[in-house]
Structure formats: C-alpha cells, structure tokens
Inverse folding.
C-alpha cells in the first residue's frame, strides 16, 4: 500500500505546474457535469486573456459590480482581457451577454508560478456593470474555512475530455466533494498547502484545461452563493482520471480582496 502511494506520488507530483506550463494550449475542464442555466450562475465570467505573444482562456467570478476574481495564472503576464458576462454559451447570440475589455489587474504579490501558492488575481472592469437577472455578484466571499467532505459546485468552459482540446461552448457545472488536505497529499504530495483545497467528483467529474480561475461555489438556501475557491490545477495524468482537482481557498484572501478592491 505504502509503495503504491509513493509511486503515485512520484508519477503525479509535477502536476501542479501543469496548468502553468500548458497554458498556451488552454488552461485547467469540467469533466462530467451538466450545462448550467445562467440564473444559477449569474456571477460567472468567461475571460479571454492576451499576453505578449500568446493568448489563453480562463473563468472568473463577478465580485461587486466592477471586479472579477480569478486565478493568478490568468492575470500573470496578461496585457488585455476580454470578459463576457451574462451568458452560458460562448458563441451563440444572447441579448443578455455583455462584453468588456480591460487591462487592469492585480496579481497576488506572493503568487508562485512553480508551486501555484497564492494563485489568485483580480481584474478591474473599466466601468461598473449593471446587475440584471443574468449578471450578479457572488453574494459572499468565503465566510469561513471550507469544511472537508462538503458538497460544492465546480464550473467552467474547460475542455470536456482529455482527447478534445476544444473549449465547451456551454458552461458546465458539477457537484463535487471537498477532500481533507491530508487525503489530497497522498496523491499530490507536499505541494498541497493549507491555502489549497482539493475536490473530487463522482466517477471522474472535476475541472480541466480552460476552467482555471473559475469559482468553487458553496450554495446556501434560496440560491445564496459563497465564493470558496478558485480553480488552480489538475492532475498531470489528465482530467479524466479520478484524481482530484485543486483550488485556491478563498477565505485566506478575503482581506487582500477587500483591500485591493477598496483601494483601487
Ligand atoms: C470537441 O469538443 C467540442 C466542444 O465541447 C465539441 O463541439 C466537438 O464536437 C468535440 N469534437 C469531437 C471530435 O468530439
Ligand atoms: C488590509 O488592510 C489593512 C488595513 O490597512 C491592513 O492592516 C492589512 O494588513 C491588509 N491586509 C492585506 C492582506 O492586504
Ligand atoms: C472589508 O473591510 C471593511 C473595513 O475596512 C470591513 O468593514 C468589511 O467587513 C470587510 N469585508 C470583507 C468581505 O472582509
């Protein structure tokens, strides 16, 4: 048993860097899951990122009326963001969609591209967006540390299988369960820090390339949404493996988000 875990650890340990290394061919999937309805996820943002010489795609979440919470990987090296709010489809005409361009972002000062610690960034829209039935802020930043073995929602436009590198045209979401960090360390090793949380779906459900930056949401009664995580990494062995996917825990960054959005 022990040697099996060691083997798995050795094979899989480079995985945290995968989402960074591979960002040219899109970032982190939703495997499994179902197509979301915009009324369930009016905060979700599709982000096309332009860097110097290459482009990539990320997800994010509207916070307040002028800020998008996303991953550090999604803003690091960026020069321009094109952000779509209010629609589930990336391409179909939708009168509720609004599209913004901006180049203003804040990367967490301690973001580490190798360990993916502090993988969080904020994007500021040029002007406040009007809330509608299709465009609304998440209700709360994480109210406390996320419990283990809790049901939360993952979502994103990421690729829906390992073989098909195309983004999903429709936003997918899936119900997954938070893993104790000790359990996640068995798979990913000591790269798993307190500031990260792993989630595990039924079968192989979880995140994939293109989902990076998308929120992990704890749903309260009456549709109240708590932003508890940010999609950060998947297993080096691919998204369709039953291995968990990794998220930045929001609650440790509430002060940074609060300060950055208040002071800029
Ligand atoms: C690849 O995925 C895209 C988006 O989900 C889909 O439209 C397309 O049909 C898929 N291609 C293949 C060969 O399965
Ligand atoms: C947020 O601002 C407060 C008050 O200025 C400061 O004490 C605190 O260190 C800041 N925290 C972060 C994470 O920026
Ligand atoms: C942000 O900071 C203000 C004080 O500067 C505080 O009243 C508020 O509760 C904080 N909000 C969050 C989400 O931490």
């Amino acid at each position: 048993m022990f040697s099996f875990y060691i083997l798995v650890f050795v094979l899989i340990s480079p995985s945290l860097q995968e989402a960074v290394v591979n960002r040219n061919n899109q970032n982190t999937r939703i495997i499994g899951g179902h197509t979301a309805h915009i009324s369930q996820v009016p905060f979700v943002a599709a982000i096309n990122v332009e860097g110097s010489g290459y482009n990539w795609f990320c997800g994010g979440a509207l916070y307040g009326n002028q800020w998008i919470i996303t991953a550090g990987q999604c803003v690091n090296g960026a020069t321009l963001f094109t952000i779509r709010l209010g629609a589930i489809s990336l391409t179909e005409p939708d009168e509720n969609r609004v599209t913004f361009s901006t180049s203003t972002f804040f990367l967490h000062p301690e973001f580490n591209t190798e360990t993916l610690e502090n993988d969080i960034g904020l994007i500021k829209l040029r002007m406040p967006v009007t809330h509608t039935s299709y465009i609304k802020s998440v209700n709360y930043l994480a109210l406390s540390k996320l419990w283990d073995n809790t049901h939360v929602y993952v979502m994103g436009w990421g690729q829906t299988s390992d073989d098909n590198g195309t983004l999903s045209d429709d936003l997918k979401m899936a119900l997954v369960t938070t893993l104790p960090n000790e359990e996640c360390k068995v798979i990913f090793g000591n790269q798993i820090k307190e500031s990260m949380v792993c989630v595990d779906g039924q079968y192989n459900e979880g995140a994939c390339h293109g989902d990076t930056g998308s929120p992990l949401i704890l749903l309260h009664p009456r549709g109240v949404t708590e932003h508890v995580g940010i999609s950060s990494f998947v297993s080096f062995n691919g998204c369709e493996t039953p291995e968990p996917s990794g998220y930045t825990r929001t609650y440790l960054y509430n002060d940074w988000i609060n300060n950055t959005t208040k002071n800029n």
Q: What stands out?
A: Residues 44-136+253-263 form a domain with the Thrombin, subunit H fold (CATH 2.40.10.10). The first strand starts at residue 34 and ends at 35.
